[in-house]
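Interim report to the steering committee. The following record documents the input for Sec-independent protein translocase protein TatC (301 residues).
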Amino acid sequence: MASDSQARRTAKKRKQPKEKDPEGRMSLGEHLTELRNRLVICAVAILIFAIVGWFLFPAVFEALQRPFRVAALGGREADLNFQGVATGLNVRLQMSAYLGLLLSAPIIMLQAWLFVMPGLHKNERKYAIGFFGAAIPLFFLGCAAGYWAVNQLVPVLLSFTPDTEGVQQLIKYDEYLALLVKTMLAFGIAFVMPVVLVLLNFLGILRGKSMLKAWRWVIFLCFAFTAVMVPTPEPFTLIGMSAAISSLFFAAVFISIYNDKKRDKKAGLEAQDLDPDQASRNDHVVEPIDAPSQIDKPENR
């Protein structure tokens, strides 16, 4: 009987769930389990949107042919080439995977935030709504800018082909697709970076004045990035795209400096509103014993 009751108590203890740390701390094994769960959710989201992308392939294929039609109007003929019997299937699978990655980007960013969030304070977690409310539209706006950049890029690149008899421009569709997706992702990330800077400022990691010190390098990198991604012969596109990306950076700097002033002002008010007893303890200065005369003298006997 004693052994049976002891076995039941042991089984009951095993069934009891482990109490969570009130401060949200987790062991290494729990961190790895959490990371695995987040990665599984991201993989499932990519798979679901890839299935959606499979059915969107015909419409997307028509949209991707637009740069070559523009180049044909300018006298630059180019044909998209599907080499091999199974190339059409391979391209459709690649397109579905790329669409799944692009469409699931908000879910991937959300899972990344949920993985980092337990290590933050409660007042830092409230920035998630503002971060995703700005990052997701800016990401898709950057992807649209990348698609527009490819439309400007393809005719310029085709213009370097020798315009002589017997020369035909054949382009592998999978290579063109990879170029398009990389450009769209590059512009999407570039448009989201200012939001990341604001988030780092709100978390107290980076101050606005520190960002402002690097404004020359930021403008140079914006122009260099645009010049590489959109090599148009006329300067207006270069200036317009660079100004758009630079303006996002300066908007992040303005928001960060305003937040720093507000935070410093609040910290100053909190310092002035200290408890009087605490302030008196902090202001109290112990005077040193500076003379032997202050040492207790023996009483006269």
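The chain has one domain: 30-268. The committee is asked to note this result when reviewing the revised timeline.
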